[in-house]
From TrEMBL:
This is T-protein. Its main location: cytoplasm. Gene3D superfamilies: 6-phosphogluconate dehydrogenase C-terminal like domain (1.10.3660.10), Chorismate mutase (1.20.59.10), NAD(P)-binding Rossmann-like Domain (3.40.50.720). Pfam families: CM_2, PDH_C, PDH_N. The keyword Glycosyltransferase does not apply. The lineage of its organism: Bacteria, Pseudomonadati, Pseudomonadota, Gammaproteobacteria, Alteromonadales.
Amino acid sequence: MPLSKLRDEIDAVDQQIIDLLAERLRLVGEVGEVKTKHGLPIYVPEREAAMLAKRREEAEKKGVPASLIEDILRRTMRESYASENETGFKTVNPDMKRIVIIGGNGLLGQRFVEMFKLSGYDVDVLGRSNWDQAEAICSKAGLVIVGSPIDVTTDVIKQLSFLPKDCILTDITSVKDEPLTEMLAVHDGPVVGLHPMFGPDISSFAKQVIVYCDGREPEKYQWLIDQMKIWGAHLYNVAAPTHDKSMTLIQALRHFTSFVYGVHLQEVDADLEQLLDLSSPIYRLELAMVGRLFAQEPALYADIIMSQKNNLAMIKRYHQHFSDAIELLENNDREAFIDRFKSVTNWMGDYSELFLNESRTMLQQVHDNRHYEEK
């Protein structure tokens, strides 16, 4: 009976939490309308950091763990950013002519179609079904975005010699140097390379990174950079060759190792259900990332991994490090293993501690999501 009474009280408090969250989301909707009216970005890092710091301090004064209130607020803010999309965004460049998105029927292309329409622009989608009208459609364009698959991006770009001189030409593929070079060669007007560092399944552009590589006449496409900032994205400027070198590690090598691990699991006929039952949070997260890869389009990852000649060289180099490490095991050279471990730790410096803290938060969330059923 005492336990039932306490549970009833907890249920009542939970209901109050739900009511308060509903009220918070309602207020966020009003905030979104104000931001739209005044052209303010949905994500303001300084505001978020100051608010979280204040709430952490207030929570600690009441005996509530600061990390708990931060977890709740961060999750709530994610929903808030997504709900602000519904109110639309300020049109940074109201004089912009039509926007044409080549490949706008693809999953990522659809997200950009949606965001530009929410920002008040007229958008046309160009693809295989209406490519015979490409020149006519693009003749009215002030911005053309190439969102074609990686393996055909440069071929598509080469066909765009008919664009108006004042039209901005850009692409959103994950390789930047070759497409940017081709765009500069085929078009005499403004050119910029873009790489959204996210997939199409995001709920909001808030805090998402979009890389941009300058091409020609940056003053002509500055409005585009500003527009994406209003969506909440973080715009990161980098030279195209530097970007591609980083993507070799961030994308090609990482996806390739996940691919190989998935192949290995299949070859040894691993019991995935049992692996999940026995997994630590960190292994569950690793398995989730491998599974995420194989739940998506294989051609996309084949193109990412094979898109640059340097990718193969980096993968071979990684393979050699595997061989070197295996040799340590074969020789049972414990001291050499520890020395190499320490060497990497020293090279990482303060980043290793940063990664430890960040991973701790992610692992706690993975652990919280676990649900056990009696068998």
